[in-house]
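Q: Structure tokens for this one, please.
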Amino acid sequence: MEHAKHIIRAVLLLVIAATVFVLARHFAIPASYGEYGSYRSASVTEHAAKETRHGAADSCAGCHAEQVDNKAGGKHATLSCESCHAPLAVHVLNDQKVGPMPIPTPVEACGWCHQKLRARPEGFPQVVLADHVAENGETMTDSVCLECHNAHNPSE
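A: Here is the predicted structure, written as tokens:
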């Protein structure tokens, strides 16, 4: 039996480790975990209670009808304003203006979607910006895209 002491100690350590693990798991996992699947179901109501940061597709039309109408007639009609600008809550919160809407430079904003990348679909309008600017006889500036294109309706 003297040679079995190390085995008894190892088994005792495994039992203690398993007990600690089960107790820690019991206190670490929230009660609502697993109620409706492998997530914490209470998180749904927690997220629903958070303040809305993004606006609906027509949330800008009240103050910016001209830009929204212009966008509606062009190739950017399906884009949310927040695709190029910041979330609505940065500019308007509870129907009150809280600050200026960040407006990225056209080169930056247009480049997010139209900079040539192999991963984009072949028919999607893409440009190598420096080449496109040079081909059209322009010089590279932050607002060079607006020399030829309307940001809200580029087909104009």
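A few notes: The CA atoms of residues 43 and 109 lie 34 Å apart. The chain has a mean pLDDT of 88.
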